[in-house]
Specification:
Number of domains: 2
Radius of gyration: 21 Å
Number of strands: 13
Order of helices and strands: EHEHEHHEHEHEHEHEHEHEHEHEHHEHHH
CATH class of the largest domain: Alpha Beta
Helix content: 40-55%
Largest sheet: 7 strands, parallel
Distance between the termini: 13 Å
Shape: globular
Structural class: alpha/beta
CATH architecture of the largest domain: 3-Layer(aba) Sandwich
Length: 386
């Protein structure tokens, strides 16, 4: 069968690549075409356009690049109709993907599957109408989404497990801690590590990294500060952000590693993490963390969060557990003194460290066993054959 997949960011590229591999195991004749990234292409999907060409975040950047986005969307629509896949698989990225789903439903009989359901429980709950109208099979990777969609909105959803569980478990099977030293000047370092994960987009890094560095600076004598660079962001960009710190940190004080996030976390004592999949990865690797997400006009942003965001937490760890396992410092709460206080509490001997690690165990139990891509692939194949 022919499968067309669309993923709009790095995490979607990872999850989609594993789904492609699982589908291929169950359908040896499968053909794949995609809007996505390098990992999907590495699994044999024909890459029509890379997600980075259309990945803009925030109202102003989207408005500035609207013509490029609309051109990319039209090209995608035309390519789907020309290729005529047996199924269209959308991976997260709802602003783009729901528009594609509407177009496909209006102009073809191609069935639409959504893998990694849109997070309408957080905001834009009105999108449920579009999902009911245009999506034939909805697959969830977060257990709390099942009662939200089924009990509140009367729409069936299938929880398949969380692919990040699979990715972390696969990494742990292949990498022993002592046998997997960090590269990038970290070889032979005896200091314990505080990991810094400031996001995957430039604006996120600009907003969060400097504050993280300043909060962690007093620990630089006893810990090595190590920054995980995001794919697509240049070393020069990170160097500029580090230099902007008021502590004028030297290159020897902070190291930057690339394509080694799991290895970094595996070696780390604690972490400062911007909200997103990284909070879940950090928890699954059992590293105590502080979730940091700075927003400009902090008080206004906090008010907007209370008015428009319909969930009590922003980190996946807390959302899955239904309680605050990790501290969340958002908007004006994300300041140097607060981050430093909470960082101290999760370092060895800190007051919150053990409780957080116990919370991680509860979270892992709720998420369940590995096997999400395989379960998703089976549901997609069974549905498409019907």
């Amino acid at each position: 069968m022919k499968y067309y997949l669309i993923a709009g960011e790095a995490s979607g590229d990872v999850h989609a690549s594993h789904l492609i591999a699982s589908i291929r195991q169950q359908d040896a004749a499968a053909q794949f075409r995609c809007y996505g990234g390098d990992m999907m292409a590495a699994q044999g999907a024909e890459l029509v356009q890379h997600y980075r060409d259309l990945a803009y975040m925030g109202f102003i950047p989207v408005l500035m690049h609207l013509r490029t986005i609309l051109r990319g969307m039209k090209r995608c629509q035309q390519d789907i109709l020309a290729w005529q896949p047996d199924v269209l698989i959308l991976v997260d990225y709802p602003g783009f993907n729901l528009k594609i789903a509407r177009f496909v439903k209006q102009h073809s009989t191609i069935p639409v599957v959504y893998y990694i359901a849109p997070k309408i429980w957080a905001w834009k709950e009105h999108r449920i109408r579009k999902i009911k109208r245009d999506v034939d099979l909805l697959l969830s990777i977060l257990p709390f989404e099942v009662p939200f969609y089924e009990e509140k909105h009367g729409y069936h959803i299938n929880y398949v497990g969380n692919p990040t569980v699979d990715e972390v478990e696969a990494y742990k099977r292949e990498h022993d801690t002592k046998a997997s030293p960090l590269r990038g000047g970290m070889e032979g370092s005896a200091l314990p590590i505080i990991a810094l994960l400031p996001g995957s987009r430039k604006q996120e890094v600009r907003d969060n990294l400097r504050r993280m560095l300043e909060a962690a600076a007093p620990y630089a004598k006893d810990y090595q500060l190590v920054l995980a660079a995001a794919p697509g962001l240049e070393d020069e960009f990170y160097a500029e952000q580090i230099k902007s710190s008021i502590f004028n940190l030297q290159s020897s004080t902070i190291k930057v590693v690339r394509d080694q996030t799991y290895q970094l976390l595996q070696h780390s004592t604690a972490a400062l993490v911007t909200s997103g999949t990284a909070t879940l990865e950090t928890a699954l690797l059992r590293v105590p963390q502080v979730v940091c997400y700075y927003m400009k006009a902090g008080r206004l942003a906090s008010l907007a969060k209370r008015l428009f965001i319909k969930v009590p937490y922003i980190s996946l760890v807390n959302l899955i557990c239904g309680e605050e396992v990790v501290p969340e410092l958002v908007a004006e709460q994300m300041n140097v003194s607060s981050v430093r206080h909470h960082l101290a509490s999760i370092l060895p001997g800190g007051s919150a460290r053990e409780a957080q690690l116990k919370g991680y165990e509860r979270m892992a139990s709720i998420l369940g066993e590995p096997g999400a891509p395989e379960r998703a692939a089976k549901l997609i194949l069974d549905f498409t054959k019907r």
